[in-house]
Amino acid sequence: MTKSAPKLTEPAPIDIAVICYPGSQATCIHGVTDLFTYADYFARQQSSASRTFVRITHWRPAAADGRLECVFDSRPGPLGRPTVVVVPASQLAPITRGHSPESNTWLVSRHAEGAIVAAVCGGVFVLADSGLLAGRRATTHWMFADELQRRHPELTIEADRLVIDDGDLVTAGGVLAWADMGLSLVERLLGTAVMRATARFMLIDPPGREQRYYSDFTPHLQHGDKAVLAAQHWLQAHAPAPFSIAALAGHAGLGARTFLRRFVKATGLTPSEYHQQLRIARGRELLERTQDPVDRVAAAAGYEDSGGFRRSFKRLVGLSPGEYRRRFQGGRRPQCTAD
């Protein structure tokens, strides 16, 4: 009698669990779900195996006992341990401390089982509240970065970054950064070919953008130091013009050494760094709204040397003036490009 070949067990799919905590953003929840659904399709297309590569589940705190219950399953069946737990963005503003203790407990448990935890925008506050981010690097929406640092001084905030993949913990910046984060995870779990096919289908750039392309310089003005605030107001009104520390300290009514110390404490920047941020902000505005040559933009922003403007712009914004203009001309958000 001929023995039949042993039946091969089908590999378990990658399990993407999305936490639908109170106030989480529906766009993010369903966007991540769609992105991984597309990734599953392209993974099957590129493989000879006819199987499911990705399973997506949604989890919500249960009203009765505080546990999280599964409320959606793209491949119904026995529930296993998730490969990745996604913490979506919040609506408009970051959640308050202790907003969803059930989610925090569930996150810690899944992470202890080996899950990657990936949080987007305001969802980074949920992850930080769980304690898992303590002592680690993180990003969030650039408008929320100061608040995240205030609540969690133990974190190293890198607000210029759109996605920080720190191995077991992944954080993403702006509201729609779930796409960049999702593609990064697809590349890690399913390979570059599947990631690129998914990105092309969704008409979005592959991972590699930076949040600083989008963030405006927002001076910190509510620090309570009236002398420094007077100097900030003067700089804002005369940004393109050169200045001296002595003159700026005079506007603040302080001695130069005292002024420097208090300015850095209040704003987090030296006066020169602050002045340069204001000038680059002026340059960004002109690149978006005019057709002036870069040399003329540099002069209007207070730079005698256009080469110095180009170097400073690239360092602070992450793009050259020409690249920035192509992406943002007319105030538009960046277009999908093949850069």
Automatic annotation (TrEMBL):
<dbReference type="InterPro" id="IPR002818">
    <property type="entry name" value="DJ-1/PfpI"/>
</dbReference>
<dbReference type="InterPro" id="IPR018060">
    <property type="entry name" value="HTH_AraC"/>
</dbReference>
<dbReference type="InterPro" id="IPR018062">
    <property type="entry name" value="HTH_AraC-typ_CS"/>
</dbReference>
<dbReference type="InterPro" id="IPR029062">
    <property type="entry name" value="Class_I_gatase-like"/>
</dbReference>
<keyword id="KW-0238">DNA-binding</keyword>
<dbReference type="GO" id="GO:0043565">
    <property type="term" value="F:sequence-specific DNA binding"/>
</dbReference>
<keyword id="KW-0805">Transcription regulation</keyword>
<dbReference type="InterPro" id="IPR020449">
    <property type="entry name" value="Tscrpt_reg_AraC-type_HTH"/>
</dbReference>
<feature type="domain" description="HTH araC/xylS-type">
    <location>
        <begin position="229"/>
        <end position="327"/>
    </location>
</feature>
<dbReference type="InterPro" id="IPR009057">
    <property type="entry name" value="Homeodomain-like_sf"/>
</dbReference>
<protein>
    <submittedName>
        <fullName>AraC family transcriptional regulator</fullName>
    </submittedName>
</protein>
<keyword id="KW-0804">Transcription</keyword>
<dbReference type="GO" id="GO:0003700">
    <property type="term" value="F:DNA-binding transcription factor activity"/>
</dbReference>
<dbReference type="InterPro" id="IPR052158">
    <property type="entry name" value="INH-QAR"/>
</dbReference>
<dbReference type="Pfam" id="PF01965">
    <property type="entry name" value="DJ-1_PfpI"/>
</dbReference>
<dbReference type="Pfam" id="PF12833">
    <property type="entry name" value="HTH_18"/>
</dbReference>
